[in-house]
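haha ok so turns out i had the wrong file open the whole time. this is the CORRECT one, sorry everyone. sequence first:
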Amino acid sequence: MDEILRLLLQFMEQIEGNFDGLDDAEANEISEFLIETMSFIMDSQRQAQTREQAETAAIPQVEAPQPVGADLLWILAGGQEDAFVNYLRTFPDPALNSLLENPALLTSTIEHLNRTMPQGERGSAQGIPQAPLDSSNIYGFQYDPSSGHLKVRFQSGSIYSYQGVPPGIFRVFQNGAVPARTTGQNKFGKWWTGKIPSLGAAFYQLIRQGNYPYQRLS
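then structure:
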């Protein structure tokens, strides 16, 4: 599965710059493929983890301390287990990466984070719902599939309107299904090369560079 994910990310990097030349049908087809493939990988990972947990359930596990930084990734993931596991795969920290090699510890870590750091319901600001994932750049967005009208509220508080965004492109953006290419952090969050899901990277590659007509609303 790791090799499939690597090849998928490589494929995504190759096509990111070519979305401009696609018509809506082609863009939707590629978007559907990306999302379905990511879902397949996540489902396969969950099934593998379930099998491993069943196999090791009878083996006593030595309780290990939770790696430093797991709480940060949990916040960035918005409390979503799939996003959290993907962050564990790409975050440059061997201790966090090793959680994936210990299904029992991974499960107990997620249970601990769910119990001690419940994310609750997401809020809204200026009529824009907060995104399901925390982002250092984007607060939230609102989309009308019938018109392709996308409103994005940034962490700075400014709101921009983008016209004619195809549903397929929006779905890839909504899922943050584009890996980050840089590393950094600000007061709103943290990002690293290969981070996926990444709303900021998806916005930059698909919306900002998509040359959709836009205007600033506030």
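The chain has two domains: 2-55+66-116, 124-216.
again sry for the mixup
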